[in-house]
Amino acid sequence: MKNILIADNAGFCFGVKRAMNMAWNELDKSDKVAIYALGPLIHNKQAVAKYEERGMLTVDTIEEIEKIESEKVRRGINASKDREMIIRSHGVSKSIYDEAKLKNIPIIDTTCPFVRKIHYLANKCFEDGKQLIVIGDRNHPEIIGINGWSSHSAIIAKNLEEISNISFETNKDYFIVAQTTMNEKEFDAIINYIRSLDIKFEVENTICSATRVRQESARELAQKVDLMIVIGGKHSSNTQKLVKICQDIVDTFSIETKEDLDRNLLEKYHTIGITAGASTPDWIIEEVINFLREL
């Protein structure tokens, strides 16, 4: 039998759990209201699938909602139903709220409170005439949303290499925030570099406290095992940061479900550590644990 150790902090974080509960409650009235999610509710396709089975429709744009609703009216399918749009935990740009209001689409806002705080900071920064710097992945929906609260004028960099290639101006006031799932050590390295420059700046460490704790728990556990298994979506930013942290210490497998595990590859490992991203449901974690216990 394998010795299995589980990180103290693994699985749903507060923001994701809150978003999932809010969305689930809305689906209780899906016989009267068409429920749309603007983008995947969370970065876990297995969890999202359970919501879509209950009637939630995932779309990429508000225009897509308009097209679906128009087609329903044309065909007389559930034409009497109202509609609602769920804003996922990653948050969205200010323009999305404006567009939804213009088109009279009620919003169920599940934006994580930690992300909402960054929206406020980004908007205030823009209104005060300061230059916003966001440390994170420019292609991640959270960063796209944050940038949208500064009229898409932010400087975005995800690592020290990218920030060192930026030409800063001495006559500007800069304001720095971070993606909530940013690696704490990498963020500190970037801030230390910026401090070495002759520029005026303020910084707000907006890395989620749950992210800090989750990353530190994974780092500590990785030092005690032969193998780390990190469970989470391939497109989940916080999951992939956990993978990187563990890989720097010990052999690490990145998986979405137990189906991604290879019994033959696991044979040589005796003590196995498990952690999971903030969008990973408990039932997926339990399936992996049970699979390992049966080896």
TrEMBL record:
GO terms for biological process: dimethylallyl diphosphate biosynthetic process; isopentenyl diphosphate biosynthetic process, methylerythritol 4-phosphate pathway; terpenoid biosynthetic process. Its cofactor is [4Fe-4S] cluster. The lineage of its organism: Bacteria, Bacillati, Bacillota, Clostridia, Peptostreptococcales. It comes from Peptostreptococcus stomatis DSM 17678. The active site is at 142 (proton donor). Its EC number is 1.17.7.4. Dimethylallyl diphosphate binds at residues 43, 90, 140, 236-238, 279. It catalyses: dimethylallyl diphosphate + 2 oxidized [2Fe-2S]-[ferredoxin] + H2O = (2E)-4-hydroxy-3-methylbut-2-enyl diphosphate + 2 reduced [2Fe-2S]-[ferredoxin] + 2 H(+); isopentenyl diphosphate + 2 oxidized [2Fe-2S]-[ferredoxin] + H2O = (2E)-4-hydroxy-3-methylbut-2-enyl diphosphate + 2 reduced [2Fe-2S]-[ferredoxin] + 2 H(+). This is 4-hydroxy-3-methylbut-2-enyl diphosphate reductase. Isopentenyl diphosphate binds at residues 43, 90, 140, 236-238, 279. Pfam families: LYTB. Catalyzes the conversion of 1-hydroxy-2-methyl-2-(E)-butenyl 4-diphosphate (HMBPP) into a mixture of isopentenyl diphosphate (IPP) and dimethylallyl diphosphate (DMAPP). Acts in the terminal step of the DOXP/MEP pathway for isoprenoid precursor biosynthesis. Belongs to the IspH family. The gene is ispH. InterPro entries: LytB/IspH. HAMAP family: IspH. It comes from the Bacteria. Binds 1 [4Fe-4S] cluster per subunit. Pathway: Isoprenoid biosynthesis; isopentenyl diphosphate biosynthesis via DXP pathway; isopentenyl diphosphate from 1-deoxy-D-xylulose 5-phosphate: step 6/6; Isoprenoid biosynthesis; dimethylallyl diphosphate biosynthesis; dimethylallyl diphosphate from (2E)-4-hydroxy-3-methylbutenyl diphosphate: step 1/1. CDD domains: lytB_ispH (cd13944). Keywords: 4Fe-4S, Iron, Iron-sulfur, Isoprene biosynthesis, Metal-binding, Oxidoreductase. The keyword Lipid metabolism does not apply.
